[in-house]
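Let us begin with a simple case.
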Amino acid sequence: MAKKNISPQHLDTPENPDKKTQVRRKKKKVNPVKRTLVVIGTTLLSLVLIVIITGSIIAAALTVYIVQFSNDVDVIELDLSDLDLAYSTFIYAYDDNEAVTELAKISRKADRIPVTIDKIPQYVQDAFVYTEDERFYEHDGVDWQRTFMAFLNEFLKMWSTRQGGSTITQQLVKNVTSDDAKTWDRKMREIFRASQLERYRPKQEILEAYLNFIGFGGSTAGIQAASLKYFGKDVSELSVAEGAVLAAIPKNPEVVNPFADREQCIERQRETVLPMMYKNAAISEKQYYEALEEELVFVEPNANSDSGGTGIQNWFTDMVIRDVTLDLADLYGIEEDEASDLLYNGGFEVYATVDMEMQNAVEAKFVDYTTFSDRVLTDPPEAAFICMDYQGNIKAVVGSNREKVGSNVYNRADRALRSPGSCIKPITSYSYGIEKNLINWSSVFRNEPIITDMIDPETGAKRTWPYNYNSRSYDYAGYFTFQALQRSLNTIPAQLIEMETPAAVFEFLQNKYQITSLNAYDADMAPLSVGALTDGISLRELVAAYQPFGNAGIYCKPTSYTKVLDSNGKVILEHKYTPLQSLGKETSYVMNKLMQTVIEGPNGTGRAARLSVTPLIGKTGTSQDWHDLSFVGCTPDYVSGIWYGYDVPKQIPTGTFYSSAQVWKNVFGEIADSMPVKSFPENNDVKELYYCTRTGLIASGTCPTGAVGYYKSDCIPETCPGNHAVTEKKENTELA
């Protein structure tokens, strides 16, 4: 076979490669970075396509669902008569024979006065619009921006409080339809109905209906009724400042209204409503500053202002309404204003724990000035009282010693946080020390201050603290535990807290006595030893904390109601009685005996509270600079407490009011002594022993004097060796 003639350029040599080899070599030289980017790009593109395809499928399915859902949603024919669909709620109490009696009937229906939109000044309309629904005139019934942020907050918790997404139109829809189920379906129905409503009704008609419906505190509903109630004038006569006050109320009508908390209401007007009006050009700069400076004149409440013509609610009714409102808000995850509307319009039955005979008696004492003083003061301190049994059932409450001029007004027994002063000592230093066996009945302490880390700028020495409430000096004498509590010395509780450690006592106070108003700054010497708390304690929680001393160590959460039934008779709220063994039974018994000395002892600060026939234990409390005076007392049936002081703290004039122990007796003494005589729970494990009055140890045959003390079975002192010297002259270091 003839050889094929191959030219040199076709030879496959390193110097002269053929085309296939050249291609292979080019492929080998592809940049690896480029290849990586190609792979990544291809992957991302695939993912994007998957997302688009999946999203399209979901969107199509949602579209079909939404279209079908919207077809099933009825069109709302707006009629103001539909807005009046409210059912009265009844509050019941039990009499002495356990028969149910009506305590109160509440409804927002009675105090609504319709008014047309043309009678409402534009700036008053704007006050509500820009406070409640800033984009009302721009959206078509649903503010998608607010809705999205509210939805997002449910999962991300970007704000500490729940964010409302409902527009004015949506709020109106919910009230017209009475469709308030807590479901996603209900929310979608509300959104579609709001959109439909705005297609069939103009904005002004929607706003008119809204302003005629919303609640303004108590039984008052609608802007016209609110204008007459708070300012005594027709809505058409309201100024910018007055209109802004009314717009501040609907967010939380039971709390932020001029009769319940005028200061908070005006604060919201100044810090929220007026700035929103100015921001949205509803008022000029001049009008804004004039409104801020305007002196607001409110009408005086009258007997029918909050109760639909049935008279002013008593203090207990106010409390149970607030308690149920808060629990409904928690149950349904709604705002307080929504819960309030639900309570007033929902046709509920509320069963209260009140003892009406006791409630009436205590209220009568509070309006009698001689209960508090034998002098007439132009500016007397305010006062409050609360009583509960040992299951936590609140039996009587009074929130002021002034004449009650309205319903749902500020209740100082429940809502005011004040310093308990020395009333904190039994629930911190003493009960902790007894519980942990760090102290006993006759442990010995010197009446001297502790040395702090603070430097006195005048002397350069470390400061000493604390002083005793009735003296700025120390006698440096020795005192037994019971004597220190009886005399209410401050120095010894400070020494105890230092020994026990503030952190441990703080945890004890929170967990054992269920005090909810504490914060991290209260885990310190002054708050825990003398009651100088950052915010204070409500009288309600303070009194409840004393339950273990008269109840074998058991604490029960206080409540003003037992159960709540809806309009169908279904129980939706029921108080759970869950006793907490806060203290050991022996600790409780020893503390009971210690606190008897406050009432019975020769130097007891609570001697004025001593009753004629009924056993009583208790403790007085005085805060720094005499701003707060308190007394908490336990009888075998009840635990109750009194507080008095000024709303804006200042010194109570010395000698003008009776002591807190005397005021407590004036209010509750006759009631307590009218009960069948009972005794506090006994404890056979606690040892009743004689102690040596020289050493505080268990007395021996050689001790010159002894007295009875009460000791836990696992914390009995040693026996006194009897080698103490008896001298005629009392030394500083000797026991008082």
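The second case is a distinct protein. As before, the sequence precedes its structure tokens.
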Amino acid sequence: MEETSPTASPATVGARIAFPAATAAEAAHLAAFWPECQLAPMDQADFLVLPTAAAPPARGPGKLLRYAPGPLRSPRFDGRHRPVALLPVAALPPCLRDAPLAAAPEATAEALARAEAFAARLATLRLGGEPSLPDPGHARLGLPRRAALLVLDPCRPDRAAAARAALAAAEAAFQLRPPTGARLLKARLSPWTLLDLAEDLYGAGPDMALLAAAAGVHVAGRTLPAAPRWAALLAHLRCADPFLSRPWSAEQALDQLAQWQQAQTENRRVAICLGMALWKRDRIAALFAHAGGAPGFTRRPARAIAEARARQGAVAAWAGAVSPGFRAECEAAGVPLLTVEDGFVRSRGLGARFLPGAAYAVDDRGIYYDPGRASALEHLLAITEFSPDLLARAARLRAAIVTRGVTKYNLHGKAPVIAGQDGRKKLLVPGQVEDDASVRLGGGAIQGNLALLRAVRDANPDAWLVYKPHPDLEAGFRRGRLPPEALDGLADQVVTGAPLTALFPQIDALHTLTSLSGFEALLRDVPVVTWGQPFYAGWGLTDDRAPDMPRRGRALSLDALVAATLILFPRQVDPLTELPCPPELILERLDDPTVWKVSRWTAHRGIEGWIRGLLARRKGLR
């Protein structure tokens, strides 16, 4: 079969391509790397696209496009994987294909500058080559930096002759003999740890030679300038968004690899999960997945501590399942504890109906709704120096949330009209689930919706008060509804079945204990009065009626609050690919209801909610 490169011939423009070695989902993503082509069934394709080592099928078109993973390889998360970069091979220059010491082709000054910046950032991030290998660095190995002669053995029969030649060249150049006290490193290590150790490198393939050039390490006694080689790579590299399957830049691919590398490091800490409901476990397993697999689950605290100690890892516990003394037990055993809760833009529906979320608050200090202990989110808000780029990203994210009408649950319903009288301020008081931990821990002297309404009415006797019950109460899943007679003289209007976003433009301010609706109101420039101590209070953005919080004396901009709360702090899992993803992707997924998979317990909870709602209406509670 004839081998062709899409970068070498205009004949591929508009061509039909097929991926015989891929599943349908994989093929749909791989097609994004060839945007000039059209994905087609194999029997209708002009070209078959295959990895370099894959054998072509017996039947099919006579032309092949071959690709290699290249140096920018994506890690696996418990087997799940999507590439962000591929390298078509047929038209590659020798320095990128089969002769790593060959001269790189000429490039423009602009291309060289871009390549130099790219290679420098890649070296700083220690990305490239086989992902997820241990990267202890020379210091943790107790070895000197750049003092070793490194000969690489590819451990492949088809490259045995080249490996022997590399070893012979190194022996001839340096009269190679193992010195007294030499150590054999049996573990497979990251390319960057090897490059930390190496002064000179023999037996490097094209990818390792590229990394060596970026690290400034000699290859076979020669200095390989990084910019020309990386310019050659960037000219041929194809990149695609692993979530939305659309073409990307190499810089975007590098950003994503950096995020995945961080997720791998964080997730490897977790030895076992505690207190996770059965219907959450698949998503939680994806949340903490890494190249080595995913953590197990238990309901027994003692077993969780024992397992974490044995594996020298952490316990990830659902915050509501942590007993008051469990944190002390973990500390006594020397076991780190991570608390887990739903994030702030979690899903397309109620968690009480067993709909798994996509965003989670994972906290190694406390939990964001408990002001009695500094949480990881509070720590971020207190110490982070927010860069202009991060603040600009936060501003774009906030604008997207407001434009799309996104909230935590993203419920839909008819928008009621707030019928306040002229001249009276319209104040919204959102209800909360009264036994919720955020109310118990952060509500302070005010515990409950009725007490909050009384406090707001006393402070604003002439205002038009609008009360909105919590969605879980409206759906019949949680207790805490207020009967109509309890609202007499307090609430002028009660709105149910309405999305918060429909109410924000109609009010003058929102009053709350600790509800996330206060944060959602801030995003829309609605004044917020807090009567408890939610995570967003105390930073100069809200009118706070609870006692001062000395730990939160710093004044922050709204975009700084958004940057910490929605970008730096939470972890997101793409509900479609189940890979770690940025918060912006969750907004995209909210537009597609088909990706939000409900649990098999959903029907039961729907029936339960309907029955509770019916009983409440008959009793006159709703």
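Residues 1-6, 605-614 have pLDDT under 50 and may be disordered. The longest strand covers residues 63-68.
Keep these points in mind for the review questions at the end of the chapter.
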